[in-house]
Amino acid sequence: MPKGKKDLEVVFTCPLGSECEEIKDNKIHRCMWYTPVSGTNPNTGKEIDEWSCAISWLPTLQIETSQTQRGVSSALESFRNETVKGQKEFNALMSTGQAIALGVKGKQKVSVVSSIDVDEENKNE
Known about the structure:
Elements: E1 21-24, E2 27-30, E3 34-40, E4 47-53, H1 54-105, H2 120-123
Antiparallel strand pairs: 1-2, 3-4
């Protein structure tokens, strides 16, 4: 709030010059943008359940969207790291398996640098 204006009452008005909701001709005339929002305020953490102009909800909804996006990005990065780790382990197992297969078929002596051993039946061939 600007300096020196703390004593003044703040009155919010519609930038379009309209009322969100008013009674005319025995009918309720409601702006199409007058919208209910329920949930948790991302700034305060308090539960909200109120009606207001959709335009006035935009900053709050943008903050919520940003917070959600950060959570999704973090989860995606974690998933990527686990996938890379799994792929490295798989590649190591596959290269060990290929060396064993070549050794058995080609009758070459192959030293295994893993916990995988050739079964006794194929070892003597």
